[in-house]
Amino acid sequence: MTDILLTQTSIEEALSSYQDPYLNTDLVSFGAVQKIDIQGGKVTVDIHLPYPSEFVKGGTEEILKVMVGNVEGVESVDINIGWEVSAHKSQNTVEAISNVKNIIAVASGKGGVGKSTTSVNLAISLAKDGAKVGLLDADIYGPSQGLLMGVAEGTRPATIDNKWFVPVEAHGVKTMSMAYLTTDDTPMVWRGPMVSGALMQILTQTAWGELDYLIIDMPPGTGDIQLTLSQKFPVAGSVIVTTPQDIALLDAKKGIEMFRKVNIPVLGIIENMSMHICSNCGHAEHIFGENGGQKIADQYDTQLLGSLPLSKFIREQSDAGTPVVVEQENSDVALMYRNLARNVAVALAKRTANDQQIPNISISDD
Description:
The chain is an alpha/beta fold.
């Protein structure tokens, strides 16, 4: 009787009733269900997700067990969820960095929008979800990642054969920054070519090892470093950080246009300081404007990856070198960063083959 009632179709229908909150579709339609095995009343389902899911897969498995268990004839259910980060190469035909699957540039059109703080919490969030993550501080003039990651002042990276830098590990992330090679009292009074050369050196001469993601915290603006990165390295995608202010949004548009010109996909917009929540009464106020990030996302046919509040707590933890996703990983703000990180990972995973290839157009006199 059980064999008659239980079919792959009935199990797929049960699985289809669950909408993955990050893929924004059901797992069957997305193609994440790899195998359904029915042995009498025992059902085993193997699912493969395209984004780091170590933190959330347990809860998903329990939800799916209940859904499949409600199918008539099912006596026991085993849900196995695995995940893997695939490599998504740039449109540029430049050589990839060995063992680094994806380079993601985190950029802003102007300074002061919280880009570095966002980069740190994004990198740590991905690592907490099980990914192998590196973080490069590409702001040669004003490196800040050492402070934000809580790396002790004066820390210097080890070297291998006097050729390779060994990245400094902090909070499960491999980090590299010009701050590790200079002192706080040494300003980088360099011209553009020197800056570009320094970026290339620390990027290519760091022994990153195997990475699912290399997050690059870009300097603000659209100058030499941005062009060097886009032309010399296979950037899989970019993320634009902005605030709702009109001037910040204007500069964010310039950043999007720059990445478009060099054929680097914009995965989405992160709106920082979207609102201020009073610590005394809980009143929320959009002091810098409202819905600016969503408007830009709509204008450029991309997505709003997440909105983050203007928070004293974020600032205090950043200054202390204990990012909020480390210090209070279950707080509301930390969970915002964690969700944002999964949205970034999924936006990259959803890139189709057409997105990754640019047609070769030749022009002749014929």
